[in-house]
């Protein structure tokens, strides 16, 4: 493919990604599923297809996507749900791999336990991108979103580690359960250590560079690749290193980074995530012709049996596992992953962890289990993982059933990504599973009030120090502004406390103030542009003043006040 053709293809892909995002925003359909369908349609047309290189995906696409997701995750929320997250991202992944491996060994001609475990490990980890996009749009409760996100961050490392052990066994390296467990533990522990080390180094760099958003942003973009490279070089889980680094950096970012750096870094990562995810899901569908061509030498019955085993285990084991873990006795359930709350706490206080003697286990509800069961969409990670299978074994023989394993993986990705992806939002709406918006708004309002009260306390400290009349005027002016904010938050608290509505009530006075402020900002921006057009203000000055207005406008809520 020539440079011009490649450039044309990239521009066309960007156009398709943008168009699909526009359609998804207006129809509520998941962009991931739509892009995969378009990729399949393109693959069926005459013309060149783009091959999905697994090494490129694992080294250049997966690290930034995982790191971006980890930055936006809550380390504290994952820690509170750690046992549940581990049961889904480690134990369930392991069970998927073993059950599919046994099924292939028993029922698929020519398959061994090792090859079955290899495909089981590849299809085991859900790719939460589509589920999270839909879940946030339809308003899933925060705990369910945390479980989906936490599982998606950790299960890739588990699956890729199991896959490497299975491939080593299938290619002639021999299989030993104690040895495999030891390799897994070393890879996981080493990945955590590598990620923590990279995060510590990033924190050291952020302090002197925090004042320069461009340098801080460059460090942020390099971090996932550095974590992945370190993990792979020391032969531990590079994927887990990326996730751990992102969780730690994201947790400490409010203290270590400046406001300007956070704004720019967040914007850049949103763009990177948007484009990478769009390209990846678009390319998934284009792999179909190449995979189908490799099935010519297989008996149709063998193909049907292999696909049935793979899809059946993936779709059925997840809800069964969730039901079983939630049906355990309370003490065992708590050990395995029950979240804990205090009985007599209510509202916003549920975000705090109760003392151990006041804890009770809060199990997933039936609606939570159904939503989590249907959120297990597979994606590019599964295809990239199975594509890393070697072509030949140690003795030079073809890797057993490689084309069949690729096809089964593609079918699982297609069924879950398109089937579950397109029906996830209607299912959540039918379940009536929504976050308590009033409770969340009440919590945010209390946090705002506490922040203003802390600011007023700092003003009292400044007022007690020696200062001149100019500083006195500045302190009193700021105190008046803070009192106005506190009064608004107190009125909002009373309004939220007295409402019985499911949705957050709208304050007409506040909405009117927001409307007037937006109109004022628009008028200021139009006047500045007229000054530039008339030659009275240089473009550099316009950009400085316009950026000030843009930041002020960015502080205004885009939806009714929360």
TrEMBL record:
Na(+)/H(+) antiporter that extrudes sodium in exchange for external protons. It comes from the Bacteria. Coiled coil: none annotated. It is a multi-pass membrane protein. It is found in: Cell membrane. The chain crosses the membrane at residues 6-24, 29-45, 57-78, 85-108, 157-177, 184-205, 225-250, 271-289, 301-324, 369-392, 404-425. Residues 15-429 form the Cation/H+ exchanger transmembrane domain. Belongs to the monovalent cation:proton antiporter 1 (CPA1) transporter (TC 2.A.36) family. This is Na+/H+ antiporter. Keywords: Antiport, Cell membrane, Ion transport, Membrane, Sodium, Sodium transport, Transmembrane, Transmembrane helix, Transport. Pfam families: Na_H_Exchanger.
């Amino acid at each position: 493919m020539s440079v011009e053709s490649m450039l044309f293809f990239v521009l066309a892909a960007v156009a398709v990604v943008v168009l699909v995002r526009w359609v998804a925003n207006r129809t509520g359909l998941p962009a991931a599923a739509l892009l995969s369908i378009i990729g399949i349609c393109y693959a069926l047309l005459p013309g060149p297809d783009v091959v999905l290189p697994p090494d490129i995906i694992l080294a250049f696409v997966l690290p930034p996507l995982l790191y971006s997701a980890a930055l936006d995750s809550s380390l504290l929320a994952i820690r509170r749900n750690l046992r549940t997250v581990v049961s889904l991202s480690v134990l369930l992944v392991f069970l998927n791999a073993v059950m599919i491996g046994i099924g292939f060994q028993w029922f698929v001609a020519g398959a061994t336990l090792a090859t079955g475990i290899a495909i089981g490990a590849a299809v085991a980890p859900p790719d939460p991108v589509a589920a999270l996009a839909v879940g946030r749009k339809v308003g899933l409760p925060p705990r369910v979103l945390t479980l989906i996100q936490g599982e998606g961050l950790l299960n890739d490392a588990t699956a890729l580690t199991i896959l490497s052990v299975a491939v080593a066994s299938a290619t002639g390296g021999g299989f030993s359960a104690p040895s495999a467990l030891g390799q897994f533990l070393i890879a996981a522990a080493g990945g955590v250590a590598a990620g923590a080390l990279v995060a510590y180094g990033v924190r050291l760099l952020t302090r002197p560079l925090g004042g320069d958003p461009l340098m801080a942003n460059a460090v942020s973009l390099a971090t996932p690749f550095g974590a992945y490279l370190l993990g792979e070089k020391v032969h531990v889980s590079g994927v887990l290193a990326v996730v751990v680094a992102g969780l730690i950096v994201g947790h400490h970012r409010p203290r270590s980074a400046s406001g300007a750096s956070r704004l720019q870094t967040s914007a850049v990562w949103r763009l990177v995530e948007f484009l990478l995810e769009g390209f990846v899901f678009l390319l998934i569908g284009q792999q179909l012709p190449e995979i189908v061509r490799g099935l010519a030498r297989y008996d149709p019955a063998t193909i049907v049996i292999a696909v049935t085993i793979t899809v059946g285990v993936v779709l059925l084991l997840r809800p069964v596992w969730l039901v079983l873990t939630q049906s355990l006795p309370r003490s065992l359930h708590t050990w395995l992953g029950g979240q804990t709350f205090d009985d007599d706490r209510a509202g916003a206080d549920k975000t705090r962890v109760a003392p151990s003697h006041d804890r009770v286990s809060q199990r997933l509800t039936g609606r939570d289990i159904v939503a989590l069961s249907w959120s297990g969409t597979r994606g590019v990670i599964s295809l990239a993982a199975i594509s890393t299978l070697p072509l030949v074994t140690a003795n030079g023989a073809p890797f057993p059933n490689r084309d069949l394993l690729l096809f089964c993986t593609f079918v699982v990705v297609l069924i879950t990504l398109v089937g579950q992806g397109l029906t996830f939002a209607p299912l959540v709406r039918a379940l009536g599973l929504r976050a308590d918006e009033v409770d969340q708004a009440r919590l945010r309002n209390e946090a705002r009030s506490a922040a203003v009260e802390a600011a007023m306390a700092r003003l009292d400290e400044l007022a007690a120090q020696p200062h001149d009349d100019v500083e006195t005027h500045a302190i009193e002016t700021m105190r008046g502004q803070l009192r106005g904010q506190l009064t608004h938050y107190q009125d909002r608290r009373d309004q939220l406390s007295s409402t019985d509505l499911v949705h957050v009530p709208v304050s007409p006075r506040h909405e009117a103030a927001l409307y007037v402020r937006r109109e004022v900002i628009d008028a200021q921006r139009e006047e500045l542009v007229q000054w530039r057009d008339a030659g009275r203000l240089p473009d550099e000055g316009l950009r400085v003043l316009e950026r000030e207005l843009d930041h002020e406008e960015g502080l205004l809520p885009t939806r009714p006040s929360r």
